[in-house]
Write a structure and sequence with these properties.
six-stranded antiparallel beta sheet, 18 strands, 36% helix, eight-stranded mixed beta sheet, 401 residues, homodimer
Amino acid sequence: MALIVKKFGGSSVANAECLKRVAWTIAESYSEGNNVVVVLSAQADTTDELISKAFELNDTPSKREMDVLLSTGEQASVALMAITLEKLGLPAVSLTGWQIGMNTDSAYGSARIKSVATERMKAELDRRRIVLVAGFQGVNKYDDITTIGRGGSDTTAVAVAVALNADLCQIYTDVDGIYTADPRLVKNAKKLDEITYDEMIELAAQGAQVLHSRSVEMAKRYGVEMEVLSSLKREPGTKVRGVNKVEHTKISGVAKDANLARVSIIGIRDEPGVAFKIFRVIANAKKNIDIILQSANNNSANDISFTVAREDLVSVVEILEENKSIIGFSEIKTSDNIAKVSIVGAGMMSAPGIAAAMFEALYDVKVNIEMIATSEIKISVLVNENDADRAVSALHEKFFD
Amino acid sequence: MALIVKKFGGSSVANAECLKRVAWTIAESYSEGNNVVVVLSAQADTTDELISKAFELNDTPSKREMDVLLSTGEQASVALMAITLEKLGLPAVSLTGWQIGMNTDSAYGSARIKSVATERMKAELDRRRIVLVAGFQGVNKYDDITTIGRGGSDTTAVAVAVALNADLCQIYTDVDGIYTADPRLVKNAKKLDEITYDEMIELAAQGAQVLHSRSVEMAKRYGVEMEVLSSLKREPGTKVRGVNKVEHTKISGVAKDANLARVSIIGIRDEPGVAFKIFRVIANAKKNIDIILQSANNNSANDISFTVAREDLVSVVEILEENKSIIGFSEIKTSDNIAKVSIVGAGMMSAPGIAAAMFEALYDVKVNIEMIATSEIKISVLVNENDADRAVSALHEKFFD
């Protein structure tokens, strides 16, 4: 008998038919003797509908009230699933964020999880009930409802798995595992049986949207084994854990992120502290930057380029212009027709020739590289957005076919 | 400066336009210096939609999970109203049943309120915030969500007003007060400036659907002054309080209840305890009965007739048939084309001739009376359903025109 946490996303619980299908998946695991905790997202479209209702009233609603509003979506999901399981004759109990003691800080809309109480969930599991937990939501020390933002219900599922010391945290999605590349882009993409936390984090950071890196980082920190699998097919997915148990190719995947824009600050003074000033003002505005490239010119002025999420481009440029006199630069150039293409693999950097093979593959299909960034387990290149899909296919063919 | 509790129903918060209109009503009262607590229902249709979602999955969902599901409707309403008030620059905070400490017993779907904590609401009012309370919902001692059933958000509003010792509890509806008869039936119906708790309770019990008697009973017990007024018109409504402050006609209203059926049990033995047995088995099944009439025949067998809610007719007859051998009777006759028409007025019984005038008015329009029931402040007659509207008009003309 194992303790298993299962998470289903909004499309898996979108309507009565979906709810019944998921109920059977839960029933099967429960009937095998497992203790089962299920984390659910809001039904597909519910969150968007609530957001549009709010913005019809006020284009700058407070984050506190948005959290009160949006958390109703997950609460409705867990109640509906409990009702579905009751129909199958299974004992189930739905619980909200505050009911399970999902304690967070007070950063409404993007709260950090501080602790998860286990008494209530354990008491229900001891009674052999299926515990249904509303994802995405928590409660702060003032007893106010919060939502946890990035990673949402995936992160709830891992946090619950950590708190209960679960044997496995299964993330059910509309794909059946982690692939060597996006199967919609690359027809020969292969499903991986397993992948390490670090590789998964890099793949997520480089644009693979199956799992959010936040949830994987938490799973890695506490050693919770994850599995990504399909809510439609009844077959094993991809295990995410500390060490791969079988040998496999050094590259675990190719990823693309097209939601990027590049900012180039031209003519900054070649003196200490300038980069610090630039990234401090951006960090103060809570905007994330990604790849950074600094190039030295022949004269005394330098350029510095970096990438930001495309939706942050306008506000980042505004912030920089407001601080022009403090930072000191001559002009800002931007581009939003770029994409990042990455290869990810544990220990890749210790295998000679991977980078060369990557650049060769791109050269062969005439893809121009604008910026390069590397880490221990990934190499990313910035390319023209129109070249990105061709680059992904070429890299996948080079390393997997 | 007064402390005012305002309650708005589902049709008053149905969409963005309605929410904005209600927000202005709240803003006006707040700007006059009052402390304002607002109790809201779920947006119109939301509750019905949630119920139909649940019944699509399971035609006998547990009451616990239905309460988890339905309580999301009121939670969404208060968040949306807070967001609307923020747009007007007003400080508002939404609170759920568990957040205000609306403590109930564990009778899911029809929980009784045990106590209302005031710390959180008082702290928010001290900060001059408008407090928005989700109606209809509470929390039991296990930290499970409950709903309070009959009277719903009206009862929440009065309970909050009692707990906070509010100066006034205003119930906003789609009519602008309590009328001497249903204005849709009687074109000369007049709005009352005030009415006593007892009269209001009788009117509600006799079919007037503006206020539920449960909320008025609670207001009476704790002496909270209520006002029923329109959420559309900006004018005074009808005050509901212990004693009328101005003299008025002895009859305060004419009411109709068509949601009735009559059950006649024929041929019961004329011996002690038979009536007890009948009403005990019905009470055990938690069905309410209303008017009872026992008639003695010439022989040793009697008949007994009573009314029940129309939706309970089938199950009440089943219960009686199951217990036929215990009770002892020859047959059951039923009718569901009946209606109850009542006149209500404090001290009515001490004014001679009221009953006679009532029966005369009905005789004049050829309405046959099937049963009569009286109390200190009301006279009800059972008539054929097709005669009911004519009876209401005739009575209103007799006593008010």
